TrEMBL record:
Residue intervals of the Acyl-CoA dehydrogenase/oxidase N-terminal domain: 21-74
Superkingdom assignment: Bacteria
A molecular function GO annotation: acyl-CoA dehydrogenase activity
Acyl-CoA dehydrogenase/oxidase C-terminal domain ranges (all copies): 184-309
InterPro entries xref list: AcylCo_DH-like_C, AcylCo_DH/oxidase_C, AcylCoA_DH/ox_N, AcylCoA_DH/ox_N_sf, AcylCoA_DH/oxidase_NM_dom_sf
Cofactors demanded by this protein: FAD
Protein name: Acyl-CoA dehydrogenase
Protein family membership: Belongs to the acyl-CoA dehydrogenase family.
Classification via PANTHER family: ACYL-COA DEHYDROGENASE, ACYL-COA DEHYDROGENASE FADE28
Keywords (A to Z) from UniProt: FAD, Flavoprotein, Oxidoreductase
Length: 311
């Protein structure tokens, strides 16, 4: 058993045993806040395989932890910019951060003053902004939280009005920040899709109609077989997503649609109980739907992929 498998088991056991633990507690107990932080800056010095293992388990459990924006994107941005002090703060989980990429909003940097807005940003205490070829830290003039469909993934609008910034370093490596974010999200989506498949199979074995488990009916068998193919393919795409921009675009497109399909079919297999508030199936559909917009819809990933394939 390699390190990614050990991490996967440890995170799964932790989430099952301590569902109410805070991000700071989880960072202290598991060290996932500093997973991608080099050891000399207080982190674990791990790579994409370990990142995907952790993200998959967080997605499987619909965890609200800010792993995607803080432990992956913010850490990657800080490493690229050489912001070692920020890395050390993020590694211990004492602070969380979110990242605005070029194109995420209408922003203008005049000297050391930032003006504009980011309409949709993941929640984080520290705000890192890629603007004018730089990575800067800026405290928003105003934060406006949204009432989101998926309450486990808070979104907010960030407004800046001549806001002083702290220059952290070069921000031209933002595409790598985006691609690792897409890779982590794809792993979450694959983990969520696998959990939907597991729930559907469990229900198909236990639910009986006409004296037989519904899983014995051909229509359900075919539905579950198709889901298994989707989930396994999504897992493969997610595992290779961190290699380069092309791999990230493939995973961003495929895993998004696979998760949406798995979440929807899970509800269909469950029948009436699948649409009740008490059953968790609707929560996976909500997460799958919100995830589908985070880094752009599947069509946006395919457009980026087409630019590489067709020049």
């Amino acid at each position: 058993m390699g390190l990614p498998d050990e991490l996967r088991d440890a995170v799964r056991a932790y989430l099952a045993g301590r569902p109410g633990a805070s991000w700071q507690q989880c960072a202290r107990d598991l060290g996932i806040a500093g997973l991608l932080v080099p050891e000399e800056h207080g982190g674990a010095g791990c790579g994409p395989a370990e990142m995907a293992a952790v993200a998959g388990e967080l997605g499987r459990a619909l965890s609200p932890y800010p792993f995607l924006q803080s432990a992956v994107m913010a850490v990657t941005a800080a490493r690229a910019a050489g912001a070692t002090q920020l890395l050390e703060s993020l590694a211990g989980g004492s602070a969380t951060a979110t990242v605005a990429l070029p194109g995420d909003g209408d922003l203008r940097l005049d000297g050391d003053l930032l003006t504009g807005e980011v309409p949709y940003a993941l929640a984080g205490e520290i705000v890192l902004v890629h603007v004018a070829g730089l990575l800067v830290e800026a405290a928003p003039t105003r934060r406006e939280p949204y009432a989101t469909m998926d309450e486990s993934r808070p979104l907010q609008r960030l407004l800046f009005d001549q806001t002083p910034v702290r220059r952290l370093g070069d921000g031209r490596s933002w595409t790598r920040v985006r691609d690792l974010g897409v890779a982590a999200l794809a792993a979450e989506q694959a983990g969520g899709a696998r959990r939907c498949l597991e729930m559907a199979v469990e229900h198909a074995k236990a639910r009986r109609q006409f004296g037989r488990p519904i899983g014995s009916f051909q229509a359900i068998k075919h539905k579950l077989a198709d889901l298994l193919l989707l989930v396994e393919s999504a897992t493969s795409a997610a595992q290779g997503a961190a290699r380069d921009e092309v791999s990230a675009a493939i995973a961003g497109s495929y895993c998004t649609e696979a998760y949406l399909a798995a979440a929807g079919e899970n509800i269909q297999v469950h029948g009436g109980i699948g649409i009740t508030w008490e059953h968790p199936a609707h929560r996976y559909l909500k997460r799958a739907t919100s995830d589908a917009q985070l880094f752009g819809p599947p069509q946006a990933h395919r457009a980026r992929l087409a630019a590489h394939v067709f020049g």
